[in-house]
Amino acid sequence: MWGGRTGALLRVWGLWPAGVLGRRPLSCNAASLAGSNSPQCWNCGGPGGPMRGDGFFCPQCRALQPPDPTRDYFSLMDCNRAFRVDTAKLQTRYQDLQRLVHPDFFSQRSQTEKDFSEKHSTLVNDAYKTLLAPLSRGLYLLKLHGVEIPEGTDYEMDRQFLMEIMEINEKLAEAQSEAAVKEIESVVRAKQNELTDNVSRAFEQDDMEKAKEMLTKMRYFSNVEENIKLKKIPLQ
Amino acid sequence: MAKVVDHYENPRNVGSLDKKAKNVGTGLVGAPACGDVMKLQVEVDENGKIIDARFKTFGCGSAIASSSLATEWVKGKTVDEALKIKNTDIAKELCLPPVKLHCSMLAEDAIKAALADYKLKQGSNPTGPEKSAASM
């Protein structure tokens, strides 16, 4: 009875063989499901499934549907697929979405919905975190354009830049005062701001190679920023 | 695992050599995917033997351990022997997991870069330092 495409759908959604189908009335008809071509609500068989757009709930029975795996972070967070984002708007969107899907709001619902809400909430967290910071946002945008930074030794980075990174790291390691650390911090922040502008311009000009080069430099400076954070701890 | 931790917590040969010295070769390499930077220096005597090595690495524990081990291994070797050090040997010695293999590759590349810099400083004479001293 649950073989074929329907069985496959239920297996993907983790509902079968051991799944629980919820406490809502089950009005689906196996025969009608078996021949259908569009995704259906796991609960009532109505027009549901991983929803396009912001329809996280089945319009018929209001059951939470699984996340749409084809939706990228920009779409999920209602941002244009571009490097520049309105971070205030991003934060509002994050809060609005969590109010809809956070597991806290599903404590009384079925296990299936609890599981879906956890998946939704995690996705929203990942999307927010990725899009908030310029480096991760830029790398994600590069990935969407099919460009990734390769593993392994950097044979393309100019020696002068690597020396600069090495010297800043050495200076930071040797810094004895809070003031010295703060000075390095402001130098690095200025560099990051400049690189962020360069990345933005590169994406606007659709120059993926330039964006990749700038983002790679940002990555090295980002490690310095992490080291600055670590350095600050005992000085406080 | 213990070896990586040991080389990370007690790295050998951290520091710098005089990069202006004629018999010092400096290699500087980076890994863009993780943003690690590694500097490895070698001091070579008149017989082409590496008598000292130092490193400075800013990055993950595996990168630090790999470069620490690299400086230990190059000491006492000739330039040509040191060029034969492979990242797979470093990774095996440190039991690096697959995801950290590129750290050992970075160390191998740092050794090669340091030796290439040394050779460049000796002039275009390909037969080694003892001959170039005579040609000067």
From TrEMBL, chain A:
Pathway info: Cofactor biosynthesis; iron-sulfur cluster biosynthesis
Keyword Oxidoreductase belongs to the record: no
Gene: HSCB
Residue ranges of every copy of the HscB tetracysteine metal binding motif domain listed in the record: 39-65
Coiled-coil portions: none
GO biological process: [2Fe-2S] cluster assembly; protein complex oligomerization
A Pfam family it matches: HSCB_C
Residue stretches making up the Co-chaperone HscB C-terminal oligomerisation domain: 157-229
Keywords carried by this UniProt record: Chaperone, Cytoplasm, Metal-binding, Mitochondrion, Signal
Gene Ontology CC: cytosol; mitochondrion; nucleoplasm
PANTHER family per record: IRON-SULFUR CLUSTER CO-CHAPERONE PROTEIN HSCB
Matching SUPFAM superfamilies: Chaperone J-domain, HSC20 (HSCB), C-terminal oligomerisation domain
Subunit structure: Homodimer. Interacts with ISCU (cytoplasmic form); this interaction stabilizes the (Fe-S) clusters on ISCU. Interacts with the CIA complex member CIAO1 (via LYR motif). Interacts with ISCU and HSPA9 to form an iron-sulfur transfer complex. Interacts with SDHAF1 (via the first LYR motif); the interaction recruits the iron-sulfur transfer complex composed of HSC20, HSPA9 and ISCU and mediates the incorporation of iron-sulfur clusters into SDHB which also interacts with HSC20. Interacts with the cytoplasmic form of ISCU and with CIA complex member CIAO1 (via LYR motif).
GO molecular function: ATPase activator activity; identical protein binding; metal ion binding; protein-folding chaperone binding
Domain of life: Eukaryota
Organism name: Ailuropoda melanoleuca (Giant panda)
Family: Belongs to the HscB family.
Protein name: Iron-sulfur cluster co-chaperone protein HscB
Entry function: Acts as a co-chaperone in iron-sulfur cluster assembly in mitochondria. Required for incorporation of iron-sulfur clusters into SDHB, the iron-sulfur protein subunit of succinate dehydrogenase that is involved in complex II of the mitochondrial electron transport chain. Recruited to SDHB by interaction with SDHAF1 which first binds SDHB and then recruits the iron-sulfur transfer complex formed by HSC20, HSPA9 and ISCU through direct binding to HSC20. Plays an essential role in hematopoiesis. Acts as a co-chaperone in iron-sulfur cluster assembly in the cytoplasm. Also mediates complex formation between components of the cytosolic iron-sulfur biogenesis pathway and the CIA targeting complex composed of CIAO1, DIPK1B/FAM69B and MMS19 by binding directly to the scaffold protein ISCU and to CIAO1. This facilitates iron-sulfur cluster insertion into a number of cytoplasmic and nuclear proteins including POLD1, ELP3, DPYD and PPAT.
Subcellular location: Cytoplasm; Mitochondrion
Phylogenetic placement of the source organism: Eukaryota, Metazoa, Chordata, Craniata, Vertebrata
UniProt signal peptide: 1-22
UniProtKB/TrEMBL annotation, chain B:
GO MF annotations in UniProt: iron ion binding; iron-sulfur cluster binding
Pfam family, one: NifU_N
Annotated SUPFAM superfamilies: SufE/NifU
Keywords (A to Z) from UniProt: Iron, Metal-binding, Transit peptide
Protein name: Iron-sulfur cluster assembly enzyme ISCU
Similarity comment text for this entry: Belongs to the NifU family.
Record-annotated NIF system FeS cluster assembly NifU N-terminal domain positions: 3-123
Coiled-coil regions listed in the entry: none
Extent of the signal sequence: none
Any one GO CC term of the record: mitochondrial [2Fe-2S] assembly complex
Biological process (GO), any one: [4Fe-4S] cluster assembly
Role noted for this protein: Mitochondrial scaffold protein, of the core iron-sulfur cluster (ISC) assembly complex, that provides the structural architecture on which the [2Fe-2S] clusters are assembled. The core iron-sulfur cluster (ISC) assembly complex is involved in the de novo synthesis of a [2Fe-2S] cluster, the first step of the mitochondrial iron-sulfur protein biogenesis. This process is initiated by the cysteine desulfurase complex (NFS1:LYRM4:NDUFAB1) that produces persulfide which is delivered on the scaffold protein ISCU in a FXN-dependent manner.
Gene3D superfamilies, sorted: 3.90.1010.10
